[in-house]
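re: ur question from earlier - yeah i can do the single chain one, its not a big deal. heres the input i used so u can compare w yours
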Amino acid sequence: MVISMLAKRPPVPLSRERIIDAALHIADGQGLRRLTMRRLGDALQVEAMAIYHHLPRGKEALMDALAEHVTAIQVDPATSWQETARQWCRAQREALREHPGVLALALTKPPKGATAIAIMEQVEQLTDAGLTEAAEAVRTMRAFVFGSVAVEVQQSGWADPERDTWTRRDERADADFERGLEAMLRGLAS
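and the output i got, formated as C-alpha cells:
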C-alpha cells in the first residue's frame, strides 16, 4: 500500500508589498470605496488586525502607500532635459493607468515619502540638464500627466457601474497624450 503524502505549502508570509498588491487588486477591480481592511484581510487570508503590524496607522497608512506606489516614479537621466521629461511623463502615465482604482488618491494625497524624493530627483535631473525653473516644470508636468490620465480613465468607462467592460488602451488617447506632451515641452523650453 502506497500512501502519497502531499506536502502542504507553508503560507506566504504577510509583507507590506503583499498588502499593497492585494489592495491595488481590490481598488482596481472594485473601486476604492470597496477597499476595507476586512476585505483586504480576507483577500490575504489573514485577520484584518494582522495588517496593522505592517501598516500601524491602518487605513490611512494604506491609502498613503497606495498613492506612493503609483506616484514615486523615477527614471534615469537622458541626453537632454526634454528626453528626461518625456521618459518621466510616459512612465508616470503608465503607472497611473495601470491602477485606475487609486487615481483619486494620486490626485489628492500630498506628495510625501518616496514620492517627495522622486519629485526632488526630477527637479535635480532637469536642473542638471540645463532647464531653468525646473521645480515649476515638474509641477507643470505632474498637472499635465495627472489631468490627462483622469480624463482618459473617465472616458474609458472604468468607473461606470453600468458598463461591463472598459477600454484599457485607446489609440486616440495615446495620440492626444503625445501631442499634449510635445506642446507642454515646447512651452517649458520658451
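Residues 134-156 form the longest helix (23 residues). not sure if urs matches, ping me
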